[in-house]
């Protein structure tokens, strides 16, 4: 919005400066000068309306883009959640098997340890 204000101020300042230059340098009558100033004021008004319309269009585009962004983020988060749940469901049975194998290994190690301590004491 700062750019829009700067542009508007530029148009206003340009209109004022061009009006002053026209008054000081134009070898025209007062009537002609007033007519020229009136035309320049109309052109400035038309330019301001264009800036205003462009600002509204830009504002609408920003609103639409942010709404689309929110929808895309929601869809992406749902997709990620679904993927994680699917991965978790795939891994769950294997996780139980791994825990079972680790328990068996631990039991066998304990048995070996007991056997080695029994052999050493004999």
From TrEMBL:
InterPro entries (alphabetical): Desiccation-related_membrane, YtxH
Pfam family for this entry, one: YtxH
Residues forming coiled coils: 95-122
Keyword Coiled coil in record: yes
Alphabetical UniProt keywords: Coiled coil
Domain of life where this protein originates: Bacteria
KW Transmembrane (keyword) present: no
Name the UniProt record assigns to this protein: YtxH domain-containing protein
Species whose genome carries this gene: Amphibacillus indicireducens
């Amino acid at each position: 919005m700062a750019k829009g204000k700067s542009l508007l101020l530029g148009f206003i300042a340009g209109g004022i400066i061009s009006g002053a230059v026209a008054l000081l340098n134009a070898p025209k009558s007062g009537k002609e000068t007033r007519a020229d100033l009136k035309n320049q004021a109309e052109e400035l008004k038309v330019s301001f309306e264009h800036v205003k319309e462009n600002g509204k269009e830009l504002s609408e585009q920003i609103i639409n883009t942010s709404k689309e962004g929110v929808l895309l983020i929601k869809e992406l988060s749902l997709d990620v959640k679904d993927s994680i749940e699917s991965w978790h469901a795939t891994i769950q049975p294997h996780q139980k098997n791994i825990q079972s194998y680790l328990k068996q290994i631990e039991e066998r190690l304990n048995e070996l340890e007991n056997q080695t301590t029994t052999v050493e004491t004999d």
